[in-house]
Amino acid sequence: MTKTLNSPMFELNQECKYYKTIKEVKDNWPRINEILKEIAETHGFDSKEFAYYGSRGFGFLEYSDASEKFKSELVKNADRNDVIKVRKTSKLYKSISPKMLEIENIKRQVDPFGLHDIFGMNNLVASQWIDDRYFVEVKDENQTIKEINSRKEKGGLEPIMHIDYKDYLLLVTETLKEKQKQK
C-alpha cells in the first residue's frame, strides 16, 4: 500500500452482498498464487514471466526465458501487451488450461461491472483494500450520490458509505505505522 486514493471517495459497506463476494475472492488470492506457483514449478519457468487473461488466454512475456523455452508451443507474434500466447493446440496449453480454469472460477464470483452498478457507469477511478475495508475513489461525487438516492427510493441495504478524506488518511497513516512496527 504505497499510494493513496484521492477525494471524493466512498467505502463499501461490509454488510452488503458485493463486499462479501469481493472479500471472499481477496481471501482466495493465496490459493490463486499457489496455483500459479504450481504451474511454474511443474513446467520449469519463472512465474514472473507468465501472463494470463483467463483460462483460454495465457502465455509468456516476450523476450523472456520462458518464451524461448516454449517457443514451439507459442503463437508467432506477441500481442499489444507483449505477451506471446500459448497455442490452443499445444500440449502445454492442455496441461495448463485446467489450472487456469480453477483460477477463473475463483475470480468469476465477482461481477466485473458490479462496482459500476454501485457507483455509476464510468465513474470509478481507483480502489484500495486497507485491511478488510474497501475504498473506492470516484470521478463525480454527484453521480454517486444520485445512484445512492435512486437505491434509497427502492429500499434495501445501501452498499456504500461516504467517508471523510481526513479519516481515510488517518487510517492509512495508522496502517503504515502498524506495518512498520511489524518489521
Please describe what this structure looks like.
The chain is 47% helix and 18% strand. With 183 residues, the chain is α+β, with helices and mostly antiparallel strands. It is elongated, with a radius of gyration of 20 Å. The chain has helices spanning 17-27, 29-43, 65-69, 91-107, 114-119, 141-154, 165-182, and strands spanning 9-12, 50-54, 57-61, 83-85, 124-130, 133-138, 160-162. Helix 2 (29-43) runs antiparallel to helix 4 (91-107). The strands form two sheets. It has a four-stranded antiparallel sheet with strand order 5-6-1-7. A hairpin with a 2-residue loop joins strand 2 and strand 3. The model has no long low-confidence stretch (mean pLDDT 90).
Topology:
Blueprint: E1 9-12, H1 17-27, H2 29-43, E2 50-54, E3 57-61, H3 65-69, E4 83-85, H4 91-107, H5 114-119, E5 124-130, E6 133-138, H6 141-154, E7 160-162, H7 165-182
Antiparallel strand pairs: 1-6, 1-7, 2-3, 3-4, 5-6
Percent range of helical residues: 40-55%
Q: Within the largest sheet, what's the order of strands?
A: 5-6-1-7
Task: Please tally the helical runs, counting DSSP H or I stretches of 4 or more residues.
Answer: 7
Task: Tell me the Rg in angstroms.
Answer: 20 Å
Can you tell me the residue ranges where pLDDT is under 50 for at least 5 consecutive residues? Answer: none
CA-CA gap between termini? 15 Å
Q: Can you count the beta strands?
A: 7
* Biggest pleated-sheet summary: 4 strands, antiparallel
Give the class from helix and strand content and strand pairing: alpha+beta
β content, as a range? 15-25%
The coarse overall form would be: elongated
The run of helices and strands is EHHEEHEHHEEHEH
Q: Averaged pLDDT, please?
A: 90
